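>> received
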Amino acid sequence: MTVTEITSWGVLYYAFPVLATDIAKATGWSPTWITAGSSAGQLVAALTGIPVGRWLDRHGPR
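>> returned
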C-alpha cells in the first residue's frame, strides 16, 4: 500500500511539469493558466478536505 501511495503521488506531482507543455499545446491554453488551474484544484482540495473528512467521520463513507 505504501509504495503504491508514494508512486501515485509522485506521478501526480512530478509528471505534471513534464506534461504541462503538451497539455498547453493540445488545449491552446497558456502554461501559466494550466499551472494556475492545477494549483487552484489543490487549493480547493485542501479547503474542502477537512469538512468532508469530518462529515465522513460522523456519517461514515457509505
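>> Residues 2-59 form one domain.
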